[in-house]
């Protein structure tokens, strides 16, 4: 960890809850490795306090901030510009305080989404060619939407999305419609309460992802999957949760004989490394980061 000086620049992480996060460890390892006088700190920010928190990026001349639940789908309202991919999926997880030709931050904030890229890069790192695969995805929040859109753009063949009928369900229907309109992927939307349909689609799928907060604090004792019979041994099972490292859902899958079960650490790492490059312009040694983080 670098010593904090009068020249140290700040990157934030704005979410709620957030004290469980691994992100500052990841970012600060990378900044140290790259020789950057930069530090990331986590701030508990929800929708009610998001606007003044974003304004603090300008006021404090921060390099930017990562954005997580529940702010990903609303932060765009407080930004000056949004990257095309982030605009397409309607969710932002990285806000960059853009720089001028002299390298100074300008106060003009631009939003990006590195979640989808991070998730699929982590899959590639496991030697999995996901093109042409059939996916079941639980969730329609910011991370889930980014995974869905990026997967569809990168040649997932079919996408079967499940979500509870909450305020995000309609948004899920809109994303499914967008994917069917803008990509070659065939996408479908279902009510997560229909466990029979969920089981049928999971049995027919190549890859499964739970992209909800179920499995992390305060829901660490819960799973969206009723029991192990929903899994098949050759299914690729992923969870976007990384704290705890093994969720109830992951345990169910392993106990059912599934061999390829992955938590959210890979996605967390690669979305972070992409964001770090947006902040500093530097690539980071992936092998070094995996070794230090125990991935």
Q: Can you walk me through this structure?
A:
By secondary structure, this protein is of the alpha/beta class. The chain has helices at residues 23-34, 50-59, 84-89, 115-125, 142-153, 169-182, 195-204, 248-255, 265-280, 286-293; strands at residues 9-15, 38-44, 64-67, 81-82, 94-99, 105-112, 134-138, 158-163, 186-191, 207-210, 236-239, 261-262. The protein has 2 domains: 9-112 and 267-293, Leucine Dehydrogenase, chain A, domain 1 (Rossmann fold, 3-Layer(aba) Sandwich); 116-262, NAD(P)-binding Rossmann-like Domain (Rossmann fold, 3-Layer(aba) Sandwich), CATH 3.40.50. Helix content is 36%, strand content 21%. It has a 6-stranded mixed beta sheet, with helices on both faces. Helix 1 links the parallel strand 1 and strand 2 (38-44). The longest helix is centred in the last third of the chain and has 16 residues, at 265-280. The chain is globular, with a radius of gyration of 19 Å. The model has no long low-confidence stretch (mean pLDDT 95).
Write out key terms for the chains shown:
single chain; 295 residues; alpha/beta; Rossmann fold; 2 domains; 6-stranded parallel β-sheet; 10 helices; 12 strands; globular
Strand content: 15-25%
Mean pLDDT: 95
Alpha-carbon distance between the termini? 20 Å
CATH topology of the largest domain: Rossmann fold
Strand order of the largest sheet: 2-1-3-5-6-4
The structure class reads: alpha/beta
**Shape assignment:** globular
**Poorly predicted regions:** none
What about the largest sheet? 6 strands, mixed
Protein name: Shikimate dehydrogenase (NADP(+))
Family: Belongs to the shikimate dehydrogenase family.
Binding site for shikimate: 21-23, 68, 93, 115, 242, 271
Keywords: Amino-acid biosynthesis, Aromatic amino acid biosynthesis, NADP, Oxidoreductase
């Amino acid at each position: 960890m670098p010593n904090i000086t009068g020249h140290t620049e700040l990157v934030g992480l704005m979410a709620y809850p957030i004290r469980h996060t691994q992100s500052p460890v990841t970012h600060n390892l990378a900044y140290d490795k790259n020789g950057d006088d930069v530090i990331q700190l986590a701030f508990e920010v929800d929708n009610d306090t998001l606007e003044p928190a974003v304004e603090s990026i300008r006021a404090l001349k921060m390099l930017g901030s990562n954005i997580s639940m529940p702010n990903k789908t609303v932060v765009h309202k407080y930004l000056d510009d949004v990257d095309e991919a982030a605009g397409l999926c309607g969710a932002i997880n990285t806000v960059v305080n853009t720089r001028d030709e002299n390298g100074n931050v300008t106060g003009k904030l631009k939003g990006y989404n590195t979640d989808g890229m991070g998730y699929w890069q982590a899959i590639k790192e496991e030697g999995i060619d996901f093109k042409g695969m059939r996916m079941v995805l639980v969730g329609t929040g910011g991370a889930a939407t980014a995974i869905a859109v990026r997967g569809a753009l990168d040649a997932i063949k079919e996408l079967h999305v499940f979500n509870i009928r909450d305020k995000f369900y309609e948004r899920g229907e809109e994303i499914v419609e967008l994917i069917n309109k803008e990509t070659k992927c065939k996408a479908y939307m279902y009510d997560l309460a229909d466990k029979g349909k969920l089981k049928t689609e999971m049995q027919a799928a190549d890859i499964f992802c739970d992209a909800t907060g179920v499995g992390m604090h305060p829901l660490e004792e819960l799973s969206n999957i009723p029991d192990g019979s929903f899994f098949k041994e050759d299914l690729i099972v992923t969870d976007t949760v990384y704290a705890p490292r093994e969720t109830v859902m992951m345990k169910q899958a392993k106990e059912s004989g599934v061999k390829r079960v992955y938590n959210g650490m890979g996605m967390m790492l690669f979305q972070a490394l992409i964001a770090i490059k947006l902040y500093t312009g530097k690539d980071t040694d992936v092998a070094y980061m995996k070794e230090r983080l125990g991935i």
